[in-house]
Please model this.
Amino acid sequence: MDFLFDGPGEAAVTLVLAHGAGGPMDSPFLNAFARGIGESGVRVARFEFPYMSARRSGGSRSAPDRPPVLEQSWKDAVAHLGGGERLVIGGKSLGGRIASMVADETGARGLVCLGYPFHPPGQPDRTRTKHLAALRTPALIVQGTRDPFGGPEEIAGYALSPSIRVAWIEDGDHSFKPRVRSGRTAAQNLEEAIALVRDFMVSLR
Model:
């Protein structure tokens, strides 16, 4: 299993991130996010699921692996990095969703989801929230207010565990990008997301 690292190697806690369904671990979003978190003194590790690794080595653009494969990849990553006690796990969209499914089992210190896919766009009845009602791991979900995978009004009606905090990025889409007319910039929203995650990491120490 290959990893990308940012931040100091001697950091007490490592944030482990997996990618979204369509982008690799070195997507522009994850590059910028990992760099920002790493510069704050947190170690960041990134890895790829098997289907994405296959694309990198010249394979076809296949669909994401089935959930059991994705979950096992997360368990393997946690084991490779020394166990969940010193790890906060999560990631972009799919990566964060799968992390949320193994967080309790792996004993992760915390969970960070960057744009959680609460439901497919345009299909609000197909929720992906059942397991979140019983989650015990302290969790932070950072969500744009315009995210088509789940907005404020929808999420307010979900039965989420009290261990979960949802933080909103104003006018952000699934990658936190705002509209020009909002008066905000993508850089501002990304910095806000980084600050939220940095503060969450500090609260877990």
Residues 124 and 159 are 15 Å apart (CA to CA). The helical segments are 28-38, 50-56, 67-80, 94-106, 152-156, 186-203.
